[in-house]
Sequence to fold (88 residues):
Amino acid sequence: MANHKLAGAVGDANFYEFRRQLEYKSKMYGSSVMVVDRFFPSTKKCSKCGYKQDMPLKERTFNCGGCGLSINRDLNAALNLEHQAYPS
Fold:
């Protein structure tokens, strides 16, 4: 990955293989893989009220400007992805 001209292609190939393996293993074990659009704002959207806001990468806590929720950034993203996969 040190060669910047090849880094993108190598990175894409590795993610393709990872996804292929996940899909293969999920079929083998009777589960499923759900793919969300790569531009889905999982870290910028409140998992409670849906309010969207910009958030720099260095900020680790999501503080919602809509409902006041304060939650770990990664947990918020995980909850958003869960809601996307299993809407209520």
